[in-house]
Write a structure and sequence with these properties.
This protein has about 180 residues and is mainly alpha-helical. It contains six helices and three strands, in the order αββαααααβ. α2 crosses α3 and α4 crosses α5.
Length: about 180
């Protein structure tokens, strides 16, 4: 082989390698998943939103927020991943039961305690209220028709029915955590 041919082959190989690396970097997910719930991704952005919510809350309460390299931060992050997974499970259960929560319902609930003042709400707080409303509607659906002779017995039966529903939901939901993330401490 001539020297010019070797240079041409080397240049083509380098160009091919550069094109492959460029294609790989462009197709990589810029918002990777931290978990999947029945195929629904829980993204790193969602986790970051939850962390930021608590960072602000800690600051408002005058509490130090854990350093991002500390075991306490990692434990907080893992608890938040578990919470986001639970919310996805509740959201999916609500959809299966035909329960829909409108933006107006969420905003009304958010502003219920604000004495008529409207204020900016972070996405985590919005999702918290939406999940709470979904849970309340699921509870009403699951416990509809349950009766008892006393209030205490009625509460016990309703709570047992909801506990069974949540246990079944957890058994039947397929959750996959990405490496480095887990629901525990």
């Amino acid at each position: 082989m001539t020297r010019n041919r070797l240079i041409a082959i080397g240049a083509l190989a380098a160009a091919g390698l550069a094109a492959g690396l460029l294609a790989f970097s462009l197709t990589r997910d810029s918002n990777p998943s931290v978990a999947h719930v029945n195929g629904q991704a829980i993204t790193h952005d969602q986790l970051d939103t939850a962390v930021e919510h608590f960072r602000v809350q800690y600051k408002e309460e005058g509490q130090p927020f854990p350093d991002e390299k500390s075991p306490n931060f990692r434990a907080l992050q893992n608890r938040l991943v578990g919470l986001l997974v639970y919310r996805a499970e509740i959201d999916q259960a609500a959809r299966r039961l035909g329960i829909a929560i409108s933006n107006i319902q969420v905003l009304r609930k958010l502003n219920e305690n604000s004495e008529g003042e409207e204020h900016a709400t972070d996405p985590f707080a919005y999702d918290t209220v939406k999940s709470q409303l979904q849970y309340e509607r699921i509870y009403a659906h699951v416990t509809h028709g349950i009766s008892a002779q006393t209030t205490a017995e009625l509460s016990a039966r309703r709570n047992a029915a909801m506990s069974e529903f949540v246990a079944k939901l957890k058994r039947e939901t397929k959750v996959r955590y990405e490496p480095g993330y887990s629901p525990g401490p």
